[in-house]
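Check the record.
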Amino acid sequence: MIDPAIPLIILAVLFVAIALSAIRIVPQARAYNIERFGRYTRTLNPGLNFIIPGVDRVNTKFDLREHVFTSRPQPVITEDNLVVNIDTVLYYQITQPKAAAYEVANFLQAIDQLTVTTLRNVIGSMDLEKTLTSREEINTRLRGVLDDTTGKWGIRVNRVEIKAIDPPPTIKEAMEKQMRADRDKRAAILHAEGERQARILKAEGARQQAILEAQGDQQAAILRADGEAKAVERVFQAVHANNADAKLLAYKYLETLPSLAQGEGNTFWVIPGELTEAVKNVTHAFAGDAAQARPSTEKDGREREERGPAEITGPDPAQSASAQAAVDAAEQAEKAVADARDDVRRAGARAGSMPEPREEP
């Protein structure tokens, strides 16, 4: 005989199993598509959900978080007929689980193929140099095309990035050579700029030095001129204060003449006409003193003759010395002129081809 409690236990177990199969707990950031008899009915949101056991079933489960998809390197031909391999990275997110499940069979493959075709269209309108330097433009155009197309699939493309662009090996070598040439060019330009700045600074320094030296020479010349002017003024004052006569001036003129022929570069020297006048002045000056001395001597002789033999005395020693001094002075003046002429001749002989000194008329 069957125990009446057994059917109750079986019914209780079946009820619990049916109740458990009717409960669906969806995790956070997940979405489940429910089909009833093979037809889509609804999408379960995160949390506790109930379905009809045996009637409803979970068809697809989606993760609503952002995903990263890396495509394989794809060969792309540029506008200048060069093949480059481009690797892209996509960041996408499922926004409509129903569309992602029923609008496209395999959305990842569809996104991959759409990326390749769009990338070929974009790169085909650019040359290699522009392709390498226009990544941001390529990313923007790719994202625009993918976002418009994948919107109806319930997928939003948040970002597209060019991971790598690999040109052919020969192009890489040419680019490396060009890069080295550019670096050498920049180095040469920098070196030239440095030399230019150095020369400019040196020129500025030389200019400042020349200016300072010129100013120093100017100040020195001014000071020398002031000193010479003061010296000439003092000599002029001294000459006028002492009332120098023509004899003294003529004698000083004769003393100055030999210095005119002492220069090494003096190959021609003209004796001015004033030299003869100066010699005459000196000679007449001393000759006048001698003449003044002679009459007194003759007068003394006549007086001695009148007084007679007893009154004859010897000549006055003072007067004889004065006359002799005058004669000696005249001879010394003539000798000084002759010495000056000899100095001029010797200076001309040292110079080589200087003619004989001559007097100006």
Remarks:
- Residues 95 and 234 are 114 Å apart (CA to CA).
- Residues 293-301, 303-319, 351-361 have pLDDT under 50 and may be disordered.
- The chain has four domains: 5-63, 67-167, 171-243, 246-307+317-359.
- The longest strand covers residues 83-94.
